[in-house]
Amino acid sequence: MITVALPKGRTLQAALERFARAGLSPEEDFATTRKLIVPARGAQARFLLLKDPDVPLYVERGAADLGVCGLDHVLESGADLLVPVDLGFGTCRLCLAAPRDSAVARGWRSGESGAEMGRSLRVATKYPRLTARAFARRGVPVDLVRLSGSVELAAVADLADAIVDLVETGRTLQENGLLVVEELLQVSARLVVNRASYRLKLEELLPVLERVGGPS
Amino acid sequence: MDPLDAWSKDAREAPARAVPPQGTQDLLFEAARRLRRCEAALARVFEEHGFAEVIPPSIESAEVFGDTAGGGADALRAVDRHGHLLALRADFTAQVARIAATRLSGISPLRLYYRGSVVRESAADSGVPRERLQAGCELVGEAGPEADAEMLALAAASLLALGIPPGAARIAVGAVGYFSALIAAAGASPRLARALTDAIDRKDLPGLTLLCTREVPPGRAREALLMLAQPPRPQAEATALLSRAQQLAPGDDASSALQRLVAALDRLQARELGAELEVDLGEVRGLGYYTGLVFNLYAAGAPRAVGGGGRYDTLLGRFGDPRPAVGFSLDLDALVPLARPA
Q1: Is A206 in the B-facing interface, judged by CB distances under 8 Å?
Q2: Does the structure show a pLDDT above 70 at B286?
Q3: Average pLDDT score over residue span A119-137
Q4: Which end of chain B is more exposed for a tag (fewer CB within 10 A), N or C?
Q5: Which domain holds residue A103?
């Protein structure tokens, strides 16, 4: 029996298609059912439907053997996981962005942080761990503003000097007068696997990893 | 939540002041009995195999634990009134190495075992407790593959003594010396070495491929590094993997690390172990002081390794008595709930 954690976000459809290649499909359609746990049709497996950032914890703690999760959430969670396969979909970039005419946008590349005298740079994000790490590496002290959504607004409404957020097409940034100052991480969906499951259920898992990760 | 506490700034304010620190617990009655039964079953196996118990103190000079992650760097430290930096026991092996290198210097071989708790800061949300109950063995003064095999077999026997059936336990075995030889041959900087270790330890083949193409010059070392993120092989099918690794070995250090592993595995070939063995050259994460064989133990029902060990031929040198040694420890917090000791 293997348990698969799926993210209910924008990558769900692509993830389901990949698992179908390995002969694993949910008995019920997640689009219509309200159930959060569904057995796989005719197979010794089941699917859990989770919010994307929760996938790493379910897998790390063994409630699921494997899961699909963006590299952003994998790294932000700090979970101790195996990441054997890059699924190639759900690609985007984690970026530092700031208002077009701001001190950050003007000075960042020449080494000025853009922080006002007497206070640290205020950076709003859903990714505090990755943001703290990126700024620490650049030697810039940062005042982290943890948000759970609409992060662009923080820079526009002067809650923060800059933001760290995912950029897919760049349209949201553009329409809110922000621009990318630096790209921090290339993101795509990963298969994540529990460390103990990988040892104890390898015979069951290997064919799934190969088919889900391999060419169609 | 009690409305009296709703705005309380300190989660540990009344009425909850008496909660033990995060990541620790009180064991009462049945839980205490279960732990003691498991410890007794392990002590019995260890003693049957000729190991004798040592009980090191629960505080040590902080230097004893070094400064590696998973060891001294994660220790809980305090300065005593004389200004000495002390640490709560973060790792039994370092303490046993200190004892072996000082009071027991010159007596070889030494077979020592211990049980008790270690305290290490653990990652938030990981579910790993700060205070961990352990039991383990160290064999000091024997450098050969017989000693490696003896400790692997004893680790397997320990799981069996806890009532974990052979089919529910696996031991993943690697040779960290092979990896360090590849790192040296590739001329990797400490930063690159760390990144390669992380990628291999996480089976991150895409990440490893990227790192190797960008940072490692083409050649045997690169080919061999890429092989380390491959899935493990059961002992019986490991021959092909090991001979491929041997072909790619960039020098004598890498070759001899593999030969040592093969020699240890050969000695276990015919024996009935209490767990299935598998070969995984990607077992590269340890406490920093491992130099040869490394292994991790897994048991069905536990979401992470339930123990591990390896050879550490340079650790005793830190205490002035350079002697080879090999050992392992078991994580009783993870094992006690799964155990059915006789």
Answers
A1: yes
A2: no
A3: 95
A4: N
A5: 92-185
Assess if CATH 3.30.930.10 describes domain B29-338: yes
Contacts of B202 in chain A (CB under 8 A): 81-83
pTM of the model: 0.94
Half-sphere exposure of B129 (CA within 13 A, CB side): 17
Average pLDDT value for residue range B70-82:
90
ipTM over 0.95: no
Q: Which chain B residues are within 8 Å of A80, Cβ to Cβ?
A: 123, 126, 304
The answer to whether residue B10 scores a pLDDT higher than 90 is: no
On whether both A30 and A137 belong to a single domain, the answer is no
Mutate: best of B230, B237, B241, B304, partner A, most A CBs <10 A: B304
A72 and A6, same structural domain? Answer: yes
Contacts of B208 (CB under 8 A, 6+ apart): B196, B199, B200, B225, B226, B228, B229
Which of B125, B299, B302 faces A57 most closely, judged by CB atoms? B125
Instruction: State the best of B74, B121, B126 to mutate against chain A, taking most chain A CBs within 10 Å.
Output: B126
Chain B hits for A81, CB-CB cut-off 8 Å, are 202
Which amino acid, B171? I
Those residues with Cβ within 8 angstroms of residue B270's Cβ, 6 or more apart along the chain or in another chain: none
Place of tokens 């020592």: B112
Report CB contact under 8 Å: B298, A82. Answer: no
Beta strands in chain B, from DSSP E residues, in sequence order: 52-53, 59-61, 77-79, 85-88, 110-119, 131-140, 169-175, 233-234, 276-279, 293-299, 307-311, 325-331
Q: Are residues A7 and A83 in the same domain?
A: yes
| Contact status, residue A30 vs residue A38, Cβ threshold 8 Å | yes
- Both A128 and A44 in a single domain? no
Cβ of A84 within 8 Å of Cβ of B204? The answer is yes
Structure confidence at residue A47 (pLDDT)? 98
Residue B7 has pLDDT above 90, yes or no: no
Show which residues on chain B lie within 8 Å of chain A, measured between beta carbons: 123-127, 168, 170, 172, 202-207, 229, 231-232, 278, 296, 298-300, 302-305
Percent above pLDDT 90 for chain B: 77
8 Å CB contact between B174 and B282 = yes
Give how many domains chain A has, as a whole number. 2
Residues A177, A209 within the same domain: no
Q: With a cut of 70, say whether residue B14 has pLDDT above it.
A: no
Domain containing residue A136: CATH number: 3.40.190.10
Does A175 lie in the same domain as A97? yes
